[in-house]
Amino acid sequence: MILDFAILGEKGKKGNYGMSDRELQQRFTKERDKDSALQERLNEYYQKKTDLMISMIRRAIRKNIRFRYVLADSWFACKDIIRFIRSRHIKCDYLGMIKVGENGKTKYGFERKDFTAPALIKLLTQRKQKKYSRKLRCYYITVDVVFADTSVRLFFVRRSKNGAWNGLMTTNTKLEFFEAYKIYSQRWSLEVIFKEAKGMLGLGKCQANNFASQIASTSLVALQYNILSVVKRFTAYETMGKLFQDITKDSLELSVTDRIWGALQEIVIAIANLFGLLDEEIYDAIINRSEELGHICDIYKLKLAS
């Protein structure tokens, strides 16, 4: 289920939003009522991603929408987001990717010293805290550190001895690696939504140069997707999420979907291990780049659509 969306502008290093001088001059402009809903959308267009994320979470909480985890990629792994999540009165935690490699310059407090992610990995590997998961066929390290003046847990994972390290951060310091891996994999449902909305509902296909038209077009796509999701749940008797959970916990359909999802995970893990790739790279190829494997998206959606 799509709860919220925003259209953002990327200024870029040159501050021209990726357009030439001629294109900037030819842009459609119009005076807007400062108190209109459209003006609010225009203000969002110029906001930072992290600020907009905080605004969206606030809107969801005000509408009494409850959630256990906020899942995000490395763009949102910043101190402002962590402090915001920690300050909420509802029980929720952050779980998201962090930059490791050459871009992993963020400092984390550990044993009264500051370490970057690569430095932490090196130190903990020397202390033989690196473990191997037969189930997921990967090496991983778990460590509790201080970030944004609060305790967080970091997970570092890689597929082979010489592969690249990947990282996750969560504000739930009791979360185990296997559960974190399972929970974070749900973020790929968003990629499935994008693919299906673009391919079947015309997301991003609006050719109008008026910003109001773009907002209207995207809103209609979101409404269509939500209606179709609800219809599918009722016609197929699906029980994902909380829908009908109390009365059909052990439904055959859900158990079959779990088995299919488990088989898909096994395939992805095997490919990642064989070629030294990251899980995210494989999911991205399956969901976003391969028309021949489009049917796999339907299997994935059965497990993750919400």
Automatic annotation (TrEMBL):
Identify the InterPro entries for this entry: RNaseH-like_sf (IPR012337), Transposase_11 (IPR002559)
Q: Which GO biological-process labels does this protein carry?
A: DNA transposition
Q: Where is the signal peptide?
A: none
Please give the Gene Ontology molecular function terms for this protein. DNA binding; transposase activity
Lineage top rank: taxon? Bacteria
Organism expressing this protein natively: Bacteroides graminisolvens DSM 19988 = JCM 15093
Domain named Transposase IS4-like: which ranges? 57-227
User: What is this protein identified as?
Assistant: Transposase IS4-like domain-containing protein
